[in-house]
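#struct-help
A.M.: can someone run this one for me? Single chain, 408 residues.
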Amino acid sequence: MGQELPDLKQLLAELIATPSVSSVDPQHDQGNREVIELLAGWLEELGFDCQVTSLPGQAHKANLIAALEPAAVDSARADNASDTGRGGLALCGHTDTVPCNPELWQSDPFTLSERDGRLYGLGTTDMKGFLALAVEAVKGLAAEQLTAPLVLLASADEESGMAGARALEQSWPTYIRPRQALIGEPTANSPVHMHKGMMMEALHIAGRSGHSSNPELGRNALEPMSRVLQELLDWREELRARYRDERFAVPYPTLNLGHIHGGDNPNRICGSAELHIDLRPLPGMAPEQLRAELRDRLQGALGDAATDLTIRSLSVGQPPLETPRSAPIIELAERLTGHPAKAVAFATEAPYLAELGMDVLVLGPGDIECAHQPDESLAVERLQPSIELLRGFIRHFCMEEAPNHAAG
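D.P.: on it. C-alpha cells below:
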C-alpha cells in the first residue's frame, strides 16, 4: 500500500526531531501540527481514515483520530446505522512534550541517540515513544482482519492543561466509538487503573506599596499572605486526615506550595504577593467542591483582608480516574503483563475518554522516573515486548470479539 514506512527507530527519530513543546508560559509554548501531520501521513499509508481537528482558536494545534474499521462497519455507516462502529479499541497518546534545558542534556534533546541500551531524546518516554510503537504495532493490519474498529488517537496540549482531550467531546465522530482505550503514559508496561486528579491555583493578595519607614503609608501584602500560608498548611493536614486510599503509594491528597513572589525591594512596602499551589485529589474528591472549600477557608482566615484576595485557576484542573478492576481491558492487561493493576499519583487524559464511554487503561513502555528530566530515555529492551503487548490488545478487542457493546 504505497511506499514502505520507516522502521521503528526512524519513526521515533522523526517524531523526536519535530519540536512540539506545550507550556502555560507563552514564550515556551509551541504547536504540534507537524507531529500530527507526520502521524496522519504514516497512518493513511496504512489504510487508516484520518481526521485532523484543530483546537478552538489554535490552528497550529490539533488532535488526530485515525480509524481502521471493519468492512461491515464501514458499509453500515453508509446506511446511517447508529449502533455500528461501537466496541473495539483506541490506542491513545499525546504529541506534546514539556520544555527542556538543552544545556543539561548529554546529547541534543531533538536528535534521537542510542547508548547504554537506551534511546535518548525529548519525548522518548513521555510519550512520543509510545506513538511510534503504536504505529509499528498496526503495520500490516487490514480492515478485512478486523471485527471491531481500531483507533489511534494523538492529542495536543496534555502537558499544559489537556486542551486536546477536553476538545474530544465536540470533535469525536459519532459513527465510531471504541469501548476500550489504552493510554501509553509511562508505567514501565505495568497496568494502571486509577490515578489522582490535579488542580493548580493562584492566590493573589493585593496590597499598597509605600516607603518602608512608615507602615501607615501602605498595606503590606505579605502580612495577609502569611495567614494564607498557615491556613493552607492546616488545611493540608485536615485533608490528609479526612481522605485516605491505601491503593496509592502516597495514600492521601497532597497539597504543594510551589511558587511565591511578592514585592520588589527591601525598603518598599510589598504591594502585592502571589502564591501558586498544586493539589492532587483522590478519586471521589470533586475539584469544584475543593475550590469552594479553599475559598471559604482563606476568606475566613483573612477576615477584613479577604477583599484583597483573588483566586484563579492556573488550569482547568484534571479529575481523578478509577476504572473498575473488572473492566475487560483491565482484566486483559493483568493477564497479558502478569502484573496487578495499580494506582499512580500523576494525572492523564483518561477521565476525558471515560466521559466518552470508554473503559480506560494507562499502560506504556516508559519510566515515569525519567519523564520531564534531562536525558529522558526509553529502554531498547522494552521495544519489541511493547509491540507484542499492543498487538495482544488489538487481537483481543478488534479481531476476536464482535463490536456488540455500545459505549457510554
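A.M.: thanks! DSSP finds ten helices and 16 strands in the chain.
D.P.: also worth noting: The longest strand covers residues 58-68.
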